[in-house]
Amino acid sequence: MSDNRAAANAKLTRVDKAAILLLSLGESDAAQVLRHMGPKEVQRVGVAMAQMRNVHREQVEQVMSEFVEIVGDQTSLGVGSDSYIRKMLTSALGEDKANGLIDRILLGGNTSGLDSLKWMEPRAVADVIRFEHPQIQAIVVAYLDPDQAGEVLGHFDQKARLDIILRVSSLNTVQPAALKELNQILEKQFSGNSNAARTSLGGVKRAADIMNFLDSSMEAQLMDSIRDIDEDLSGQIEDLMFVFNNLADVDDRGIQALLREVSSDVLVLALKGSDENVQEKIFKNMSKRAAELLRDDLEAKGPVRVSDVETAQKEILTIARRMAEAGDIVLGGKGGEEMI
Known about the structure:
With about 350 residues, the protein is mainly α.
């Protein structure tokens, strides 16, 4: 194998390998695999499929060989969108092949009206529920994954956003009749069946999870509004939120895994505004040489905008939460799940 091709293989991520594997399968087999994946996973793999260019035979052989060794392992991946997936699969497979695959993935199975919303872009979800009763809006937002729910809330004004998050925090269970009514509202656009049992949904922890994914300025404004209405509730939400400084409480193995996924430029920016405990936690989980270079970069970095620091920290937290969902790390601190 040439040095160039060896280097190309070394750069393949796990998602790239999954994309190569699926592209190597026939349409029917690829469809069967994708039907067992959620919207987040399909989007991540699908994007990689669409971006594949000039895949060498050696790369395919490498992926197939590794797959045989680790068959059974699963990778948790990022949020899906119906229209985006359609375009991506068409780009990757061609219109004829993609049409049959899209029909089986997006239109097949027993997807409920609520589950169908998880395949939509956040703006589209916001448009679907914009004129519904606030309690219906709250149920939908609580049902979505926190990152998608946060983006959906971003498309509402501050007053509506506050109303919805307060309702989410007070939700506990939803009666079958309410879910049936909600699915009936959605069934004109989506095929769906009502849930037959009471469903646990919402609560203060869910509200905190959603708040974690809001833009920093939006999050601060919303928290101030909640505090004005119910100081005790705002305290509960803050206690359950996982913020950047809580990374100091993540175990060393988790920090090491996280650092492998974060670029040095983003890390330097994020650490500029972080607690000293977080900085030391990062330094101790790097090689001596890498830690020295990072310290030098931090010292050499001039003044930076607070918004840039917050954006970098949000990016790292998003990666951390995704890894936590995949079971790759355990988040400690306020937002972490207790271990026994």
